[in-house]
Fold this sequence. Notes:
Radius of gyration: 21 Å
Helix content: 25-40%
Shape: globular
CATH architecture: 4-Layer Sandwich
Distance between the termini: 34 Å
CATH superfamily: Chorismate synthase AroC
CATH class: Alpha Beta
Strand order of the largest sheet: 1-2-3-7-4
Low-confidence stretches: none
Amino acid sequence: MSGVWGEFLKISIFGESHGKCVGIIVNGLPAGLELDLAFIRRELDRRAPGKSFATARQEEDEFEIISGYFNNRTTGSPLSFVIRNNDQHSRDYEEIKNIMRPGHADFTAWSKYNGFHDYRGGGHFSGRLTAPLVLTGAIAKQILMKKGIVIGGHILSIGNIADTQIDPVNPDPELLLAVRTRLFPVISEEQGKLMQESIIQAKTEQDSLGGVVETAIVGLPAGIGSPFFDSVESKLAHLLFSIPAVKGVEFGAGFAITEMRGAVANDEFRLLEGQVRTATNHSGGIQGGITNGMPVIFRTAFKPTPSIARGQKTVDISTMQEVEIRIQGRHDPCIVPRAVPVVEAAAAIALLEMMIEKDGTLWMI
C-alpha cells in the first residue's frame, strides 16, 4: 500500500477504521513552530462523526502527540500523532466479510491483497483515515494563515440542490472563515435547509446522496507551482483524489470553459493598486501550472455514500454465487458535510509542500 506522500513535506498515514488507532507522521517541518492545539481540535470536530445529524457513530477524535513536539514547540524531528478508535462495531462486518459491498473497495482490495486486508469498516480504505489528514491540514493552515493565506470551503451542492457560489475574483476571506464555524457549512442557510431535508429524505428511502465541495484559497502570491509534473493542479489533485469517494476535481470554470470562446475564457490582465490581477478568473488562479496571484478556486465531486440499507445485487466470494445484500450499521446518508474540512486540509498540505519547494522552511518561523 502507498501510505506516503510528498517530497519537501512528507506525510505517512497509517491505521484502519476498526483497528486500535489511525495516525500520521509528518516530516519536513522546521524546529521552533508553536502549534495551536485548540485549533487542531476544532478542525477535527468539523470532520468527526456524531457532530451532525448524518451519522450515529460517535468518535471524539482526541489526538495524542507521540514525537517531534517538546516544550510547546516542534523539535524538527518527525512529528507524529495517533487518534484512538473507540466506537467501532466490528461485528457489523463479520457476517458480510465475503460479500462484496457495491460501491466499496471490498472486491478490489480482496483481489489485490489476496484476502489479507482488514475488511472491518473498510479498513485502510475507510473515510476514517481522513481524520489524520485533517489533523495535518490544521497544522498547515496555521502556518499559512500567519502568511495571510486563507483556505475555505463550503457545500456547493447536494444532489440537485445548489448553494451560492464563491465569488471567483474577490472571495471574502471573512465569509470563508465564518462558514467554517457552521455545523452545516453552506453560504445560503436557506439552501442548506433544503439540502438537509433532501438528505433526511434519502435516508428514509434507504438511500444516499452525493455532492460537490467548492474551495477557495485567498492570499496566495504569484509564482507557486513546479511544472511539468508538479503543477499546482497536479499537486492538489493528487491529494484530493486520495480522499475516499472523490470522483472529480475541476479548477476555475472547469468543464464549463469548453463552452466558451477564447475571448471569454481568457482572463484579461489589469493593474490594481500596482498589482497585476485578472478581470475574470476562469483559470482558477492558475496558469501554466503556476499561481498567478488570483484566488485559487476548485470544486471536488463526491459520490453518494455506497453503504445503503436498500437491497443490492452482489457476489459472495466464498461460494461464488450471486446474492442480495442490505448493509446494516451506522452510515452517513451523505458524507459531503463532513468532507468540507477534509478537502480544505488536503489543499493546505499540498500548498504548504509547494511553498516549501519555492521558499524553503525558514519562512514558516
